[in-house]
Amino acid sequence: MTDSLTSTNAPRPFPATHWSVVLAARGGDEAASLRALETLCRAYWYPLYAYLRRQGHAPHDAQDLTQGFFARLLEKHYLDAADRDKGRFRSFLLMAFKRFLAKEWERHRAQKRGGGKAMLSLDTEMAERRYQGEGAEHLAPDRIYERRWALTLLDQALAALRQDYQALGREAEFDHLKGYLTAERGEIPYAEVAERLGTAEGTARAAVHRLRSRFRAVFRVEIARTVAAPEEVEDEVRYLRRVLTS
């Protein structure tokens, strides 16, 4: 970690981790592929839970199905089909989930009765509280999935950005400024921000600009982890923006 957030705004190399590792290692280092897949699943399982709830599944069934799906996925049963899907992890995950629901629901129920173990620990109680608080009953299940996916990426980026500020001892600055990440430039009260930070207005403007610029960079890194190649990042950025604003 450097002593300046400004220096971290430079573009980072495309991360050879997570989804790109999963796709690259299927015929080689299966342990690395499995670790990368588990990392992605832990971060992005909630959109699938919301998808099931919107389909009408009761909370306990949605919990069981989500756990059962990841048990099958982490056993590598679906990875051979990944290259036939788009290179984005969100597309692969939803397609694999639909296959699971269509073809393996009865097998999953039998495994449940037989005491099959969960391979991924999920906070399903938190997921249900979150789902109840979001009030998205007007959206179709696929639309809910896409929107929750985008919001989860934003959450991941925000958490990473907070860690950057914490590492530099500037968490209080982050907490003061994070509410302006999505504000229009003309709506930001820089004089008020400066008063809260105890600094000059020009310094406050620079701090807000630095935070917003850094957030965009971190968001792109999070997106890069879920696509297979660098050239897919920009299309995914544009798509997720449409999802969030429509």
Map the helices and strands.
Elements lengths: L18 H6 L5 H15 L1 H10 L3 H16 L14 H15 L1 H9 L10 H11 L6 H27 L3 H7 L12 H8 L3 H24 L8 H13 L1
Could you write a compact summary of the structure shown?
This protein is an all-alpha fold and 246 residues long. The chain is 65% helix and 0% strand. Helix 3 (46-55) crosses helix 4 and helix 3 (46-55) packs across helix 7.
Overview of this protein structure:
Helix content is 65%, strand content 0%. It is built from twelve helices and no strands. Helix 3 packs across helix 4, helix 3 (46-55) packs antiparallel against helix 8 and helix 8 (141-167) crosses helix 11. The longest helix is centred in the middle third of the chain and has 27 residues, at 141-167. The protein is elongated and about 65 Å long. The two termini are 37 Å apart.
Helix content: 55-70%
Instruction: Outline the low-pLDDT stretches.
Output: 7-15
Average of per-residue pLDDT values? 83
Strand tally: 0
Classify the secondary structure makeup into a structural class: mainly alpha
Q: From N to C, what is the helix and strand string? A: HHHHHHHHHHHH
**Major sheet size, sense and barrel closure:** none
Percentage of residues in DSSP E strands: under 5%
Q: Calculate the terminal CA-CA distance, rounded to whole Å.
A: 37 Å
Shape estimate: elongated
Number of domains: 1
Q: How many H/I helical runs?
A: 12
Rg, alpha carbons: 20 Å
